[in-house]
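2.7 Reproducibility. Because tokenized structures are sensitive to small changes in the input, we list the exact sequence used for TolB protein, including any N-terminal residues retained from the expression construct. No trimming or masking was applied before prediction.
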Amino acid sequence: MAMLTAACHRASPSTPKDDANPPTSTPAPPTDQAAGLTRSDGARRLPIPLGGSLQNPCWSPDGRELVLTRFVKGYNKGFAMVGRVTATDGAPLGWDKAEAQDVNLPGACWNASLHRVALSSDVAVHDEIYLLDPATGQRTQITRRSGAEAREPSISPDGRSLVFESHRVDDEKHASIWRVGTDGGGLVRLTNGRGNDRQPNWSPAGDRILFQSARNGNFDIYTIDPNGGSLKNVTHSQADDTDAAWSPDGMHIVYSSNEGDLEHANLFIISRDGSRRIRATRHGGYDGAPSWSPDGRFIAFESSDGDPDASERGTQIYMIATPPLP
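Resulting structure tokens (single pass, no recycling of outputs):
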């Protein structure tokens, strides 16, 4: 599961995309099974020609690109940089320098209204939230938290607010969810942090925020309204349910779980009210950090053949066609 530790640096300038005119459908990823790109469950590896551990895919609003994190020394290890690749063939489009741990969150991190990518970085004293212009590489610092880390940011659909996870620098077991304006004002705490609340993601309509919490012992998926009220427990398993992201219509949630005594987590999809659930990937290794394409046809995610923490290479980026939904 993607337990994130920071966010994005300057990416190389590139030609801006017109987010106001998205394509009618997301381009299909490569399907060359002979080249080892396609698994038995239909998931296909995006052949990104970069070393290190590739993690946390997040779609551009037009579905043509992915932003993701590249850890240079393995899964969640060493310096990390954030960059962009094409969604069709994984061609690199612009990457920052590995001078810090710069990390994006899968899901709602690239906002069409704001034309910015949200990420966190420890380039200064500790992790803070930044907004990055993907076309120019310029970034703006949003949070300045004394004695507390700020990580895992997600942007509201209207581009006015961010939600993120925060905890004291010396205590990573009591994280809470916070909201702040994209201008840096109006900081509000949404959860109390007693359950180690992490990885918030805005719904497409902006009416709910999902997050994972260990308030009952293991990680489950919960949702709240943008003011922190109307708590809803979506998953009720004995496993760890993490890395959740919304479907484009806001009716389903994709997440990573080792439910059913799986040795390594795979992807599952559940209805937003928690009433219906299906398994989305069937892999003997690990699948996590999923993100739904804007047209709903594909789910991008990170994957490894076994435990990513024990792998020198870490994870690579895969896509799978969205299965029939519950």
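DSSP finds no helices and 25 strands in the chain.
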